[in-house]
Amino acid sequence: MQLKKNRDSAAGFSLIEALITLVVVGVGLLGLAKIQAAAVSNTQTSRTRSLIALQTESLVAAMHGNRAFWAVPNTAPATFGASSVAVADSRGVLSTAVPSCPDASGNGCTPDKLAAYDLQQWALSMNTSFPGYTATGNCSTAATLPVSCNVTVTWIEKTIAVNANTASAAAAAQPSVQQSYTVYVQP
């Protein structure tokens, strides 16, 4: 008789055991959802950083392609910058509007016009993909040294919190972080 009683009590799950199993599985699934959200956020961050690097390298390629402007001492500006679609430089050459190069009447491009056109088109492309970016360039233009420039692009990245403690700390401090990418170029 004792053997039959033990077998009956071990025959199946009780309702409490089933509920505990559901809670454990539910918590595990919530953890997986949080991990997936963090992975998607990190993928977006990596995508943005890669595209910024590619865009900056395209500006560097344009600088290499126009050595008559960028590689000649005292021709390249000491500083230049771009924000939104606006371009400015220390000499006022790159901010001159150049709608096309060569122009509609077939006139060729001087190195100054080509540099302005390249930088303006680059700024337009950057503004389309990354509104709110800024770019600065600092060039050494001394006659005794080869021209070299540091091009820095900055942008704002949104942050994602891993847990409740970092979420409240991040929200209190700053919901987004300014990032930058710098390239050294010697045209």
Please give a structural write-up:
With about 190 residues, this protein is of the alpha+beta class. Helix content is about 50%, strand content about 20%. It has a five-stranded antiparallel sheet with strand order 2-1-3-4-5, covered by helices on one side. The chain is elongated, with a radius of gyration of 29 Å. This is Type IV pilus modification protein PilV. InterPro entries: N_methyl_site, Pilus_4_PilV.
In short:
The chain contains five helices and five strands. With 187 residues, it is α+β, with helices and mostly antiparallel strands. It is elongated.
Kindly state the number of beta strands: 5
Cα-based radius of gyration, to the nearest Å: 29 Å
In round numbers, the mean pLDDT is 85
Helical content class: 40-55%
Which H/E pattern describes the elements? HHHEEHEEHE
What amount of the residues lies in strands?
15-25%
**What's the tally of helices?**
5
Helix/strand class = alpha+beta
List descriptors:
single chain, 5 helices, 5 strands, elongated
Secondary-structure topology with pairs:
Blueprint: H1 2-9, H2 15-65, H3 67-70, E1 79-83, E2 86-89, H4 111-129, E3 134-140, E4 148-158, H5 164-173, E5 176-185
Antiparallel strand pairs: 1-2, 1-3, 3-4, 4-5
